[in-house]
């Protein structure tokens, strides 16, 4: 009997909370590896784009010659998940950012950078999350974006339940690409990562 092989999932390791995502992926049964080079990107089954500073990561993608290889892998159907800055990078259009910021076009959506305000406006709340039927997700928002607009084929997974931002889209999915405004990697709740690994990565990787 053949032993099951775990999928290899890269974490873009140019800047941001890389270790937290790698720890969560390992606990979900994946083999996490840092990705800084095109050859490393070519070797993974999927990629996580962590939180951090989106304009810095965008510039580093160009410095490390990763921008076009990453866009191509996304066009070819590679599963990907982005949290916070990762959501911004995966968008097709970004508002309130630098003019030289390079989107990846992973999800047909318009994202507003730092939509919830500055660092002092960071907050936590509980969200209903489509695909997770065992209770709400505790969501940590840190200088977070939100989704202003989505195209055809994009599914809304979670919205802000109350307050001034009630109804704002904070988790979306298009095919094998998912993005959240918040940081599930910092709470110890593995369900968002497990949803990505089990429903988007494993079926495509065949493991």
From TrEMBL:
Molecular function via GO: glutaminase activity; pyridoxal 5'-phosphate synthase (glutamine hydrolysing) activity; transferase activity
Matches recorded under SUPFAM superfamilies: Class I glutamine amidotransferase-like (SSF52317)
Gene Ontology BP annotations: L-glutamine catabolic process; pyridoxal phosphate biosynthetic process; pyridoxine metabolic process
Top-level taxon of origin: Bacteria
Binding site for L-glutamine: 52-54, 113, 142-143
Gene3D superfamilies: 3.40.50.880
Catalytic residue positions: 84 (nucleophile), 183 (charge relay system), 185 (charge relay system)
UniProt pathway: Cofactor biosynthesis; pyridoxal 5'-phosphate biosynthesis
Catalytic activity field: aldehydo-D-ribose 5-phosphate + D-glyceraldehyde 3-phosphate + L-glutamine = pyridoxal 5'-phosphate + L-glutamate + phosphate + 3 H2O + H(+); L-glutamine + H2O = L-glutamate + NH4(+)
Enzyme Commission designation: 4.3.3.6, 3.5.1.2
Key word Hydrolase present: yes
Any one of the GO CC terms: cytosol
Keywords: Glutamine amidotransferase, Hydrolase, Lyase, Pyridoxal phosphate, Transferase
Similarity comment: Belongs to the glutaminase PdxT/SNO family.
Role of this protein: Catalyzes the hydrolysis of glutamine to glutamate and ammonia as part of the biosynthesis of pyridoxal 5'-phosphate. The resulting ammonia molecule is channeled to the active site of PdxS.
NCBIfam families: PLP_synth_Pdx2
Subunit annotation: In the presence of PdxS, forms a dodecamer of heterodimers. Only shows activity in the heterodimer.
Designated name of the protein: Pyridoxal 5'-phosphate synthase subunit PdxT
Originating species: Nocardia otitidiscaviarum
Gene: pdxT
């Amino acid at each position: 009997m053949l032993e099951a092989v775990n999928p290899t999932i890269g974490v873009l390791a140019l800047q941001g909370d890389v270790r937290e995502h790698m720890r969560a992926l390992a606990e979900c049964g994946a083999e996490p590896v840092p990705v800084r080079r095109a050859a490393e990107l070519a070797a993974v089954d999927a990629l996580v784009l962590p939180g951090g500073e989106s304009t810095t990561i965008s510039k580093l993608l160009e410095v490390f010659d990763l921008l076009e290889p990453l866009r191509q892998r996304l066009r070819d159907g590679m599963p990907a998940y982005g949290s916070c800055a990762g959501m911004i990078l995966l968008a097709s259009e970004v508002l309130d950012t630098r003019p030289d910021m390079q989107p990846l076009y992973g999800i047909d959506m318009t994202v507003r950078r730092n939509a919830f305000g500055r660092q002092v406006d960071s907050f936590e709340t509980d969200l209903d999350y489509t695909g997770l039927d065992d209770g709400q997700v505790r969501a940590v928002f840190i200088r977070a974006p939100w989704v202003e607009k989505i195209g055809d084929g994009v599914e809304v997974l979670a919205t802000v339940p109350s307050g001034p931002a009630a109804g704002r889209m904070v988790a979306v999915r298009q095919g094998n690409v998912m993005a959240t405004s918040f940081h599930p990697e910092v709470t110890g709740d593995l369900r968002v990562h497990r949803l990505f690994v089990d429903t988007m990565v494993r079926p495509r990787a065949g493991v």
